[in-house]
Write a structure and sequence with these properties.
Length: 204
């Protein structure tokens, strides 16, 4: 169970949002909506423990995430930026990112994930020669091998074509069907089957 109560975020002297809360259980989807500058990315980073709330509390299975030993191992966070090293190949990036997340995958498993995400034949190419959509796929390949129950995704569908968006929707639904939890922002309307669906709308 993932819970937030009365969260508040400040940027300088400006309050981005306040009194934000939710309760997310296995199989649950939470959509975070709002205009640019309303604090969507800040909220997601806050939920990951990357920035502290001005007020409020975030709990994983009843324990504040600042004091939880289990939370980081339960979380996969993909930010708005790709978070990949462009001089390395997609294969190298995927294996390194998995290692940083606390688990190792074989070269065979990494190649399989990259092929499934639509990068067949490009696994060994430096990322800096790939298109923006292909670079995004390198990052999203982590979801095909992730073993975590909670996914927090900031604009995961940016620069993807219709086929890749369809693959992501199927992946999201499978994750939720298996008892996972998903929090995401997206400017695209995407119907995702979930046990429960909630929305937080931030105003700028």
């Amino acid at each position: 169970m993932f819970e937030a109560t009365r969260l508040e975020c400040m940027r300088g002297d400006s309050r981005l949002f306040s009194e934000v809360g939710f309760l997310l259980e296995p199989g649950g989807l939470l959509n975070v909506r709002g205009a640019n500058g309303s604090g969507k990315s800040s909220l997601l980073r806050m939920l990951c423990g990357l920035i502290l709330p001005e007020a409020g509390e975030i709990r994983w299975n009843g324990v504040n995430i600042r004091h939880s030993h289990d939370y980081k191992r339960a979380l996969t966070y993909l930010g708005h930026l790709n978070g990949i090293k462009e001089e390395l190949s997609g294969l190298e990036n995927l294996r390194i990112n998995c290692g940083l997340a606390g688990f190792d995958i074989s070269e065979e498993a990494a190649i399989d994930a990259l092929e499934r995400i639509g990068l067949d034949g490009r696994e060994h190419l430096p990322v800096n020669v790939l298109s923006q959509g292909q670079r995004r796929r390198v990052m999203l390949a982590r979801l095909l091998v992730a073993r975590t129950p909670l996914w927090i995704l900031d604009e995961p569908l940016v620069a993807l074509d219709a086929d890749a968006i369809g693959l992501m929707r199927s992946l999201f639904e499978l994750h939720l069907e298996n008892g996972g939890m998903l929090i995401m922002t997206t400017h695209q309307e995407l119907e995702i089957a979930a046990g429960t669906t909630q929305e937080i709308r931030l105003s700028s």
